[in-house]
Write a structure and sequence with these properties.
100 residues; 5 helices; elongated; alpha+beta; two-stranded antiparallel sheet
């Protein structure tokens, strides 16, 4: 982003606006930017998983499966498969797909 002091406006380089709107389809970085906030909320649990080994905290642990799937739908994933892990009843494995 560039500030234009003469007009007191901000301007994005020509190629940038397309990446920030839904018209960018799979290249829309705004959709992926949502993940940063989600991961930030469970970061301590993820780091703990690496330090202690095994197990882990996923989306389902933080919000429950129903809310996790709802959030992934809002992030515009076209297909979301939830896999339950026999050895870890607290966490599910989520596989998402976004059609181009």
């Amino acid at each position: 982003m560039e500030y234009l002091p003469d007009t007191d406006e901000y301007e994005l380089p020509g190629s940038h606006p397309a990446l920030l709107t839904r018209s960018a389809a799979p290249d829309n970085i705004a959709l992926f930017a949502q993940d940063i906030g989600i991961l930030g909320q469970i970061e301590d649990k993820i780091v703990g998983c690496f330090r202690q080994g095994g197990g882990g905290a996923g989306l389902g642990t933080m919000w429950g499966e129903e809310l996790a799937v709802e959030m992934l739908h809002k992030a515009e994933f076209d297909a979301i498969d939830v896999h339950r892990l026999e050895h870890d009843f607290q966490n599910n494995f989520y596989v998402m797909r976004k059609d181009a």
